[in-house]
Amino acid sequence: MNLRAILTTIVVLIAALAGTIWLGRGNSTLETGNSGNPQKSVEDDRPQVSETGPYPKAVVDEELYKFGEMAVGQSLSHKFVLKNEGEAPLEVKKGNTTCKCTLSEMKDNAVAPGESIEIELIWTPKTPQETFGQTATIWTNDPKNQEMKLQIEGTVNNLISFTGDSLGSPNWSLPVMSTEEPVSFTGKIHTKYLDDFKILEMISSNPGLTSSSKPLTPEELKEVDAKSGYGIKITGDPNKFPLGGFMERLTVKTDIPNNLKSEKPDKAHKHADHDGHDHKHDEQAEYKEFVIQVSGNHTGPIRIVPTFGVHWNPKTMVLNLGEFDSKEGKEVTLSMFVEGTEQPLKILSQEIVPDFLKFELKKDDKFQSKTKQRYELKFGVPAGKPSMSFGRGNLANVKLQTNHPNAKEINFRVRFISL
Fold first, then answer.
1. CATH number at residue 191
2. Are residues 217 and 331 in the same domain?
3. SS3 category, 176
4. pLDDT tens digit string along 249-260?
5. Domain containing 313: what range?
């Protein structure tokens, strides 16, 4: 071997030795740091098994209980019975649990041979679930059964069901308002978990929307697999709604307690305050109320026909301009046919949001009809405006006040995205 090869081998060996020493120092430091305050393991809390015997024997009547169906917010419980069939006291301790778990009292913290205790699992679901499962772990000093898994299973539904229920939010639609005659829709509110409940009050967000209720008949309850419920009739008065699509709210207040274990009130109670006067207290805030979304469309004496390629929704009276280049802008044209008046339609006032939205109404004098008039509607976003979006929740709006006796107010809503 030549001198260069020998020198190279010596350098490699020295580098390897230095690295080994450095790594050894690093590991020594880590071990010293960890050995100072060792963390207590969860396993240390388990009951200790005797090395010589005699031994206890833990026997549970069942390890899985199926609740079946239950309602959101409803607290249900089940008691498992744990018996000691062995020859020594059975030590029992609660381990990890995904629900509330309680153990009945034990003398000297142990179950004597031949005796038993109850282990109660309590579950209060917060949301609907097709299948739910909860588990409680029980530790014992039975050498053959040191860890026991107690389980509960079931299905969670909404406490109250509605016609048109969608993910817990009922949506009802009124028939189209095309004349001055009121229109109505009847839906149902019902439950399979309560023998009885009362509707205390129904409040509408629009004075033109009224409501009434009556208990469901036994036949109607059977159809929806319910114990109790009501039919709710909602009526819309076209004279109190502007033309266009609308979305209103009907708040239904009930006597169902927010805590299902609390009692229902008969009336708002009175008590004497420090000044000696009686004061009423509204307890309805402690009880469940539900909101029904009510949608509809008031077309009245007008009918709108879009030109080719224009996206118009006649049910909601929403014009969708789609996406377009903000540098170029966009403009569309629709035809509007008006009945019920011989006088030309005039705009008395208008509100346009955003204010740069272009709107134009022009009568078609060439259109010949004894019962109708035709108008040309133009909507547009001017070129050169900044990029913006008007969509669900913040639609652009054109509100008109007119001279038509049956179309005094007309609302057009517009959605678009300019890029």
1. 2.60.40.10
2. no
3. coil
4. 999 999 988 876
5. 302-418
pLDDT score at 328? 93
* Residue carrying the six token digits 């001279």: 403
Q: How many domains does the chain have?
A: 3
Q: How far apart are CA 396 and CA 419, in angstroms?
A: 16
Same domain, 92 and 180: no
Cα gap 376→396, rounded to integer Å: 20
If asked whether residues 126 and 60 sit together in one domain, one would say: yes
Question: How many CB atoms are closer than 10 A to CB 184?
Answer: 13
Peptide linkage before 314 cis (omega within 30 of 0): no
pLDDT at residue 277 tops 50: no
Q: What three-state secondary structure class fits 109?
A: helix
pTM of the model: 0.59
Residue 99 · residue 123 · CB < 8 Å: yes
Q: Check whether residue 75 and residue 190 sit in a common domain.
A: no
241 C-beta neighbours (distance < 10 Å), count: 22
In a domain, 388, yes or no: yes
Residue 343: half-sphere exposure toward Cβ, Cα within 13 Å: 9
172 shares its domain with 128? no
Q: CA 101 to CA 95: how far, in whole Å?
A: 10
Cβ burial, residue 176 (10 Å; 0-12/13-18/19+): middle
Give the contacts of 73 (CB within 8 A, at least 6 positions apart): 124, 125, 126, 159, 258, 259, 260
